[in-house]
Specification:
heterodimer; A: mainly alpha; Rna Polymerase Sigma Factor, Chain: A; B: alpha+beta; Phosphorylase Kinase, domain 1; seven-stranded antiparallel beta sheet; rod-shaped
Chain lengths: 175, 245
């Protein structure tokens, strides 16, 4: 149990990051209701661990909890995440796909969303943390519990996949 | 830097994660390599497409409410406590605003009244119209107010104590007709304004000075008294004391 002033401190420090927490959960689960469940559970966990939190970056701390909550939620549901081991040879070509920049810039939200949702989850979370939360490689590495080099490689492969997806979708549209 | 080396660093380069030496190396290579330049452009275009794509999900209000409620549930001790700092602060602030507001309204009303009292006093001297009824006999002055006012002001003769009753006059203060009693101490005139006050409690004497005039104010027996004169406070207080006797 927290004292009232500690509860207030928790609310003020953590609740402003609920949007970021939900955004990450929503991209991980790809579903509104599941995302709400994960954030709800993650908030309670954060509340439980609040006293032990030394307090440097609340957002990263909460996002790490959201991520852990998501993976335990997956285990509970006995759903295996479609993991792509980092050492595995990627199925994408060596050279970069080269979609027209104009097409990329005009890519509509639905197409981008479909491309992101098509990514393996560990690539997806790296993209969300980097492109939407603007976190550094170091911060992402801390959240994901992997070396910085792994973050870099995941981002590189995620982007390559995204570009391929968008190129193919654009090509289909013009066929 | 070779093409392969550069391609491995392109993501870190566009993410601003390379040190300056690494950044320079990539830039140098990219300037002379059409393939790498295209890759860089594509990475930038992808990043801005995601950034500007409206892809961020905002937490629904319902979720925010549920989280707050769940945390309250998880902290039953704090929930039982009715005392909530946020509310307490808000209520305290509201009370403070009201009190300060009332105080400042009261104060400004009082300031206006004091100014009016001083003006009435000055006017009564300048217009050479200090009394409507000139008499040192309180049995003449007191009845004179009858019919002119809806109250009967107490009239005291203090001639023997050195404050000669000069007479009475009708004046207008605080939005109503009031009785002005005039006393004289040597060459100095004293105006005593008297009117019924809503404040029935006995109020401590107030002493103040405006435009070189001294004022003494008190309330007693449902009447508000204002003494005003250029007389010094020592003698004016003596006059107030005698009037209260």
């Amino acid at each position: 149990m927290l004292e009232q002033n500690e509860l207030t401190a928790f609310n003020q420090a953590v609740l402003p990051h609920l949007d970021a927490a939900y955004n990450l959960a929503r991209w991980l689960t790809r579903n509104d209701q599941d995302a709400e469940d994960v954030v709800q559970e993650a908030s309670l966990r954060a509340f439980k661990y609040w006293k032990g939190f030394s307090g440097r970056d609340c957002r990263s701390w909460l996002l790490a909890i959201v991520r852990n909550t998501y993976y335990s939620w997956l285990r509970q549901r006995s759903v295996q995440p479609e993991l792509t081991p980092d050492g595995e040879v990627d199925d994408v070509e060596e050279s970069f796909p080269n979609p027209e920049n104009m097409l990329l810039q005009n890519a509509d939200r639905e197409l981008l969303k479909a491309a992101l949702e098509d990514l393996p989850v560990e690539f997806r979370e790296a993209i969300v943390l980097r492109e939407m939360e603007g976190l550094s490689y170091k911060e992402i590495a801390d959240i994901e519990g992997v070396p910085i080099g792994t973050v870099m490689s995941r981002l590189a492969r995620a982007r390559k996949r995204l570009l391929i997806y968008l190129t193919n979708a654009t090509a289909r549209n013009y066929l | 830097m070779t093409c392969t080396e550069t391609k491995n660093l392109l993501n870190a380069y566009v993410d601003g994660e390379l040190d300056s030496a690494g950044s320079l190396g990539v830039e140098k290579h990219v300037q002379g390599c059409a393939s790498c330049l295209t890759d860089v452009e594509n990475l930038h275009a992808l990043a801005s497409a995601i950034e500007n794509g409206g892809l961020r999900f905002a937490a629904p209000q319902r979720l925010k409410r549920n989280v707050r409620a769940a945390i309250r549930e998880a902290n039953p001790g704090a929930r039982r406590s009715i005392f909530n700092w946020r509310w307490a602060t808000a209520v305290a602030a509201a009370v403070l605003i009201v009190v300060v507001g009332i105080q400042s309204v009261k104060r400004s009303e009082e300031t206006l009244l004091v100014n009016d009292i001083v003006s009435s006093h000055v006017r009564s001297m300048m217009a050479n119209h200090i009394t409507d009824v000139a008499s040192s006999d309180r049995h003449t002055v007191k009845p004179w107010f009858g019919g002119k006012l809806d109250y009967s002001p107490p009239v005291k003769d203090l001639t023997e104590q050195g404050f000669r009753l000069v007479g009475g006059r009708m004046d207008y203060l605080d939005g109503r007709p009031v009785a002005a009693l005039v006393y004289q101490r040597s060459q100095h005139f004293i105006n005593l304004f008297v009117w019924p006050s809503n404040n029935t409690t006995i109020k401590q004497e107030d002493q103040l000075t405006r435009q070189g005039y001294n004022l003494i104010h008190w309330t007693e027996s449902g009447m508000s008294y204002w003494l005003v004169s250029e007389l010094n406070f020592a003698e004016l207080s003596e006059c107030a004391r005698l009037l209260k006797e």
